[in-house]
Amino acid sequence: MKNRADIGIIGGSGLYEFFDKGEWIHVDTDYGKPSDQVFLSNYAGKRVAFLPRHGRGHKIAPHKINYRANIQAFKDLGVGVIIAPTAVGSLQSHIKRGDFVLCDDFVDRTWGRENTFFDKDKVIHISSADCYCDSLRDLALSSCRDIGVNVHPSGVAVVVQGPRFSGAAESRWFTSMGWDVVNMTQYPENVLAREAEICYLNISLVTDYDVGLIGEKGIEAVSFDEVVKVFGENIEKLKKVILGIIDNVPDGYSCDQCHDALKGAGA
């Protein structure tokens, strides 16, 4: 099949293109259109699909993204691995701008988002305890260390509704709970990937300190312009890390943690 892919990349704020050579294709799903066309390319002997999460030019707000269509589009293309970089704010002073965090857990603070594929004919009770693929996180950790970026091997992401940033009291609460970063898009993307039995890896690039840390020495308030600026300064490192991961994903990759996620869920 021409329109197929082994690996999918969902690009976040500031990452609207990835590969130079390939083709943009239209993909329609039972859940409507994804955020944009999907770009198909080849790398390291693998077929790779790239989708800009907010659409090219950052046109779709976090709470308006059709997450189900995005994940279903990759599922329909045969994708078994999703690499999902996101821009995040730091909730802890030791997690600095330019650091990478490989999230392994999340806290959902969103509302009203379509967050399951199973809301019609039967109820499926998926476990969301393991949304982030451990095997892919190991590959990402090795790739980050090879590139020489400062990486945190695990972390908890608080996912807020957006498009506004957190209030100061909200942010101080998140920090006091010991959570690590804040983002607007990891949920329900991570849970939907699990329902689709696709391995999901998040690579969080820290672009700012969240507002609850204001007052600590050298920490300034978050702004969208600063997010884009810091992301842009680190985008080449991020691309190298992602390409390193793709290099090391084995041919015929199989993962019991993710590819059998519906087992025991009532499916």
Describe the structure.
This protein has one domain: 3-Layer(aba) Sandwich (Rossmann fold). It is α/β, with parallel strands linked by helices and 267 residues long. The protein has six helices and eleven strands. Helix content is 27%, strand content 22%.
In a few lines, what is going on in this structure?
This protein is an alpha/beta fold. It is built from 6 helices and 11 strands. Strand 3 and strand 4 form a beta hairpin.
Helix-strand string:
EEEEHEEEHEEHEHEHH
Question: Could you name the CATH homologous superfamily?
Answer: Nucleoside phosphorylase domain
The helicity comes to 25-40%
Taken together, the total number of domains comes to 1
Strand content: 15-25%
CATH C-level name: Alpha Beta
CATH-level-2 architecture:
3-Layer(aba) Sandwich
Per the CATH scheme, the topology name is Rossmann fold
Unreliable stretches covering 5 or more consecutive residues = none
Oligomer: single chain
* Structural Rg: 17 Å
- The overall pLDDT average reads 90
Largest sheet: 11 strands, mixed
Distance between the termini: 28 Å
Give the overall shape: globular
Secondary structural class: alpha/beta
Task: Kindly state the number of beta strands.
Answer: 11
Number of helices: 6
